[in-house]
Amino acid sequence: MSFFDQIQSRSESINSLLCVGLDPHQKELPADQWSASEESRCEAAYQFCKRIIDATAEHTVCYKPNAAFFEALGTKLGNVTLRRVIDAIPNDIPVLLDVKRGDIGSTAAAYAEACYEEKDGLNAGGVTLSPLMGWDSVSPFITGKYADKGAFVLCKTSNPGSNDILALNLQQQTVFEKIAGLANEWSSSAASDSPTSSTTPRLGLVVGATDPSALSKARKAAGSKLWILAPGVGAQGGDLDAACRAGLNDEGTGMLIPVSRGISRATDPAAEAMKLKEGINAARKAVLDERGEKRDQPGDSIAPYQKEFLEFSLKEGVLKFGSFVLKSGRTSPYFFNAGLFSSGSALHKLGKAYAAAIMSSKELVDKDGKVTFDVVFGPAYKGISLGALVCSALYSDFGVETGFAYNRKEAKDHGEGGILVGSSMANKRVLVVDDVITAGTAIRESHTLLQKIEATPVGVAIALDRAEKRSLEDPLSAVQAVARDLEIPVVSIVALPQLQEYLKLSSEYDEDVLKLVTEYRSQYGV
Ligand SMILES: O=c1ccn([C@@H]2O[C@H](COP(=O)(O)O)[C@@H](O)[C@H]2O)c(=O)[nH]1
Question: What are its E.C. numbers (predicted)?
Answer without folding.
Answer: 2.4.2.10, 4.1.1.23
